[in-house]
From TrEMBL:
Name of the protein in question: CLAVATA3/ESR (CLE)-related protein 5-like
Sequence similarity: Belongs to the CLV3/ESR signal peptide family.
Primary location recorded for the protein, binned into one broad class: secreted
Signal peptide: 1-26
Region (Disordered) location: 59-82
Annotated gene: LOC108661399
Superkingdom as given in the UniProt entry: Eukaryota
Length: 82
């Protein structure tokens, strides 16, 4: 019985001590996210050497709807299953 009590006590202390760094890390991440929102992304991309008109063109190309020139297949080939 005493052995069980010491194991339970050690486990409880371990859980309490290991949960403390998790909560402090969450506070640090929130501070970083708030700081990231204040940075102008266009200015940052320009400073990193990206061509903004090309990026906008690629963004428009990637967000096209289903009305593009892509053609879907006609379905399964019935001769394939015989």
């Amino acid at each position: 019985m005493a052995k069980y009590l010491t194991i339970a006590t050690a486990l409880t202390i371990f859980l309490i001590l290991s949960s403390t760094p998790l909560s402090s890390q969450a506070r640090i991440i929130q501070g970083v996210r708030a700081m990231q929102k204040s940075i102008d992304s266009k200015l940052l991309l320009h400073e990193l050497g990206f061509d903004l008109p090309k990026l906008k063109h690629y963004q428009r190309m990637s967000t096209r709807g289903p009305g593009s020139d892509r053609v879907s297949p006609g379905g399964p080939d019935p001769q394939h299953h015989f």
